[in-house]
Amino acid sequence: MIEIHFDEASEAKKLFWLLNERKRDAGPLFHAVCDGNKTVAVYIHGEEKHVLEAHIIPVLTAFVRGSVEDRLLLSIISDVFYFRDREEQQQILALAHSFLDGERRDYRKGEGFAASRMALLREAFASFLRDGLSFSFSSFATFRLRPYIERLQHYVELAIDEYKLEQEYQNFVQMLRDCVAAREPKRLRLYLVHDPPRFLFYDSHRRELSAEEVKQLIDRHLVVSQPMYIDSSVLAPLVSLAPAEIELYTDHPDDGMVQTLQNVFQERLCLRRRADFSRPFAANAGNWEES
């Protein structure tokens, strides 16, 4: 028998449920008993090594990932990095999951990350579990799961870096929105054509503006007075002009600059397909004049 003691009855019940789900495949090789409080006992009837490796360890690994991992992540966020605001904690937790689940690239990953965090869990359980053992799960986590918890802390660090960058980006976007809102539009309409990596400017008559003409549109006082760097090839001239309408033609709506332009100019900006720029003017296009 392996006896596992938990601090919370809810965790004991969750593990007991997972073990019973697994028993459907394992048959008579083991059975589990929950005392209705905080202890789960696992009775092994088959060959010990096989039952542990094929059934008990996979269940415990799934239990940690599904029922314990978020609590550990939140503990790291709060107690190691001192983010105590609940909303901030949840945002960082979501970012940590995006790294853990592979949605975001781990740009710090090195040679020491050959094993997955699930492999670290399996190794910890395999080197510890044996028939006749009675242990506290919280003590096991503290003393036996250190490599796994260190891996979680690594991803929390990445998430915090990303969170701070996103906060800076949101502040930057809001600053530009405020600039645009405070300025009188110097052009009623501009056309912008995305020809990666460039953005080509066209006036209301679809005459292409040269790089020098675009440069001359920049309000130097605007650029110098802002605390953050403003891209001089696209953002600076557009914010300087604060057009009433911008038609942006692109085949790359997920491009970072395209998304920034959408975030800054919002309802002033209309996104269109790149091929649509070659189509004839709408009938009322000539009604827009340069101001």
How would you portray this structure in words?
Pfam families: YtxC. InterPro entries: Spore_YtxC. This is Sporulation protein. This protein has 291 residues and is of the alpha/beta class. It has two domains: 2-174, no CATH class; 184-287, no CATH class. It is 52% helix and 13% strand. It contains ten helices and eight strands. It has helices at 9-26, 48-80, 86-100, 117-126, 137-144, 146-182, 211-216, 220-225, 235-241, 256-265; strands at residues 2-5, 30-34, 39-44, 134-136, 189-195, 198-202, 245-249, 269-272. The chain has a four-stranded mixed beta sheet with strand order 2-3-1-4. It has a four-stranded mixed beta sheet with strand order 6-5-7-8, covered by helices on one side. A hairpin with a 2-residue loop joins strand 5 and strand 6. Helix 1 runs antiparallel to helix 2, helix 2 packs across helix 3 and helix 4 runs antiparallel to helix 6. The longest helix is centred in the middle third of the chain and has 37 residues, at 146-182. It is elongated. The N and C termini lie far apart (84 Å).
Order of helices and strands: EHEEHHHEHHEEHHHEHE
Strand content: 5-15%
Distance between the termini: 84 Å
Number of strands: 8
Give the spatial strand order of the biggest sheet. 2-3-1-4
Organism: Geobacillus genomosp. 3
Pfam families: YtxC
Protein name: Sporulation protein
Structure summary:
With 291 residues, the chain is an alpha/beta fold.
